[in-house]
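Thread title: Can someone regenerate the structure for this chain?

I was given the following input by a collaborator and told the matching structure tokens would be attached. They weren't. Posting the sequence so someone can regenerate them.
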Amino acid sequence: MENREGKAPEKKWFVIHTYSGYENKVKANLEKRIASMNMGDKIFRILVPMEDEIEVKDGKRRMTKRKIFPGYVLVEMILTDDSWYVVRNTPGVTGFVGPGSKPVPLDDEEAKLILRQMGVEEPKTRIDLEVGQKVRVTSGPFASLIGVVEEIFPDKQKVRVLVNMFGRETPVELDFTQVEEIS
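Best answer:
Regenerated them for you:
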């Protein structure tokens, strides 16, 4: 199924409304339906938006999960008549969020914000830098300064750069997205 521009449709995040308290049951039911109806190529991820919360009870700290949006489940899918039907007719689903009968996807920024709040990993940024290489800082308080890569932390998506401030080399830790190579 192609859209009006002639491009293949892309996967987007949609929000479905469920009976309150049935979010996990809907997720399990939907996963079973996807498997039994061979919809794995159209419906990809189902998430119940939750975040970690520290609860203090009887003087003890416990980590618990709290639903961010009770009564709602996120579904990453390519919207077609078939995928809409599978999701819409899953037990516990009361409908898609959106005006009228047509589901409206979350915009990319909203989806990223919710995923970040849940602690779901976003795709990692890859960087082709080496220790000793010159870079320019592109954003933040050190923007436009030029420095030399001292250390790279791929697991944290950070890089330590030595920049010249006040006449001496100062190490600054920056995100991969805050630096660019100087050719």
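The two ends are 44 Å apart (CA to CA).
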